[in-house]
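Re: magnesium ion structure - here you go.
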Amino acid sequence: MVRDYSAFLPGSAPVRRDPTALERLGWGPAFASQIDANALTATPPVRVVAVHRSGLQLAGDGIEEAIPPGPEATVGDWLLLDPARPRSSRVLQRKSLIKRRAPGTGREVQLIAANIDTVFVVTSCNQDFNVARLERYGALAFEAGIDPVIVLTKADLTDDTAPYVEEARKVSDRVPVVALDARGEEPMKALADWCKPGQTVAFLGSSGFGKSDPHQRASRRAGRRHSGHP
Ligand SMILES: Nc1nc2c(ncn2[C@@H]2O[C@H](COP(=O)(O)OP(=O)(O)OP(=O)(O)O)[C@@H](O)[C@H]2O)c(=O)[nH]1
Ligand SMILES: [Mg+2]
């Protein structure tokens, strides 16, 4: 079946319409501008939604498949899937990339996640609150080319969130700070601006801080894939 990808090519007039399957997965002009119409049909764009030892799990427009390891790709990457030689699929240039030096090795770099739009740096309004940690995660996001948002969870467990919010604001005046109870519906309202369809978000923070609660709700509400949280 030949798919019509013309709406994704540069120069197409913006139209108000429901997002397409690819757009819901995060596709947009930054990727469309890297390819031409022929490539789109011959090698359809697919997003890496999970990385396993056995290979990459891919999702696209009507495509759900796994390919063996091969392309230098990480979760969140867009590939042009070469159906005949999936290992040779081209990785599109990234909007953002979280990486780190592979532990125990010299200079080898480990790719953590690609094409994330917003990183939620999560900590809680209690004794675990640590502004140095927020600064580290914030710096990691900026280095990766991603806008961070600080999320202070467990707001319901303190009488006054103001001191926490004030401390967190010191990280940078470019970083919004949101305090909330992560368990209920509150995250869906408070984080809605950053969780629109087609947006890819990641949650960063230590264990037990409340990353999974809003993450799971957001995934269910938006009915879309996420790139897991590290
Ligand atoms: N009262 C309250 N409890 C919370 C809040 N956020 C998380 N919790 C609870 O704290 C515990 C840990 O929350 P999770 O969301 O699983 O923590 P996590 O950051 O995903 O932890 P890891 O998966 O280990 O990295 C759970 O029992 C949550 O219900 C909150 O805002 N208020
Ligand atoms: Mg979790």
